[in-house]
């Protein structure tokens, strides 16, 4: 191989530069010299990170407003493109069906510039989006994308890969789509490597002193918190509920048992049939219905007390009206658990000997780790490590902006391995 070979690429929807970083590492591993000739990103604090790591480079804005002819010639297109549903999918296949979506901008640039190949990343759900029938292997949206790339003359491979198999302690499935004009890259049999969360965690950092954290620690031994979720929507041994820690007020052992039973019972299909509703997901149950599985003479008083404290609410069952669920006042009121998606400061305490769940922007701030005798949120450096970024990567942003950027970035080692297969097609030793 000629070690002086330069590989020119463009980076669209660049985020904080994860796809670029993985691609560059793959190039360097093959003795190639990567050169980014064009970058596009619109989020201001993502642009700040790009400038921190690539000073002096011009960052272009909205790719929808940039003519393909104005982009320098390049060998490979990289894009973690946002994928909105498009109504034409499934009615007609091919290039024209991609108009009005951001994938169209990928397609129009490929059509105009005719590079050697591309690497695209997206959420796993793209595979099944807008299926014609349930048994279809892929949905109409993805079918249109693949057909478009084929119409443009590319041999395409794709695969859903999980970051946890690439030495990154995060359960994160994403689809990777690669193609070249020469041949379809081989996306089979990647070498798997495992890692646990402790490999990316720091220690001895300041821990949270919030009233909620102190309340959790007062009721739950630190060593028993690993892997526990704190929420009121589900039961099971790995869940801590608001009544377990007395978050809304003191709860007697009998009341705790009642809440645990009600949490399980309210999701049973038999109650939907008895109430007369055609869906079931946490239904309110009447005092009479509750008596069938928790029969105590003081049940009414217990229910009233738990309602007053805010653990329960007295409400009508809901009915469907279009895409909404609204109270059905024709049905009697019943008692239901008060639950919200992000009800508490902590949604989960991560186990250092396990892996992190899929990290998304909206709930990263609710993931806690044990540090010494206390608990804290993930640092931004730990967050970067959970996506496989090297510690030399600059990431000087606010905690809020950092969580948002991390939740939408890519896993660098996966990109590196996929890019390696892509480069094999054109630069094989």
Helix content: 25-40%
C-alpha-based Rg, rounded: 26 Å
> What's the number of domains?
2
Rounded average pLDDT: 91
Number of strands: 15
Q: Report the uncertain regions.
A: 84-95
What is the CATH topology of the largest domain? Rossmann fold
What do you see in this structure?
The longest helix is centred in the C-terminal third of the chain and has 16 residues, at 412-427. This protein is 28% helix and 17% strand. With 429 residues, the chain is an alpha/beta fold. Helix 3 links the parallel strand 3 and strand 4. The termini are close together. The protein has helices spanning 18-29, 44-53, 102-113, 140-151, 211-219, 253-265, 269-275, 287-291, 299-309, 380-385, 399-407, 412-427; strands at 6-12, 33-39, 76-79, 117-123, 155-162, 173-180, 229-230, 239-240, 312-315, 318-321, 324-327, 334-337, 348-349, 367-371, 374-377. It has two domains: 6-194 and 388-427, 3-Layer(aba) Sandwich (Rossmann fold), CATH 3.40.50; 232-337, no CATH class. Mean pLDDT is 91; it is low at 84-95. It contains twelve helices and 15 strands. The strands form five sheets. A six-stranded mixed beta sheet has the order 2-1-3-4-6-5, with helices on both faces. It has a three-stranded mixed beta sheet with strand order 13-14-15, with no helix packed on it. Helix 1 crosses helix 12.
